[in-house]
Specification:
Order of helices and strands: EEEEEHEEEEH
Strand order of the largest sheet: 7-5-3-4-9
Structural class: mainly beta
Number of helices: 2
Strand content: 15-25%
Number of domains: 1
Largest sheet: 5 strands, mixed
Number of strands: 9
Helix content: under 10%
Mean pLDDT: 84
Radius of gyration: 13 Å
Shape: globular
Length: 105
């Protein structure tokens, strides 16, 4: 299990080798940058690949997202350090992490 210093997590999908361009999509999450943080209306943050949400449902006004969060943003996320969406519904703010996603990081 490799640790990513840039994103402060194990098994960082953002820094993993990418599939060659032109290859067939491997999942419904193919278009999402691996480092993205997806923010639900409830204030809960999710990561691409989360089994608690359906990729096709991720659109405003219910969701906002941050396609390129700063390094360590996932671990810092808390009521005392909220994360505001930069795309989609930019009024969304995450104050907690999805437990399913957190268990994979």
């Amino acid at each position: 299990m490799r640790y990513c210093e840039r994103h402060e997590m194990h098994n960082c999908a953002d820094c993993a080798p990418r599939a060659p361009r032109g290859s067939a999509p491997t999942s419904d999450w193919e278009g999402w940058p691996a480092a993205s943080i997806i923010i639900h209306a409830s204030g809960k943050a999710h990561l691409p690949g989360c089994t608690d949400i359906v990729p096709a449902d991720i659109r405003p006004p219910v969701y906002g997202w941050v396609p390129a969060p700063s390094p360590g943003a996932w671990r810092r996320l808390a009521p005392s350090h909220p994360l505001r969406a930069t795309e989609g519904n930019t009024g969304r703010t995450a104050v907690s992490r999805c437990e399913t996603c957190d268990a994979t990081r």
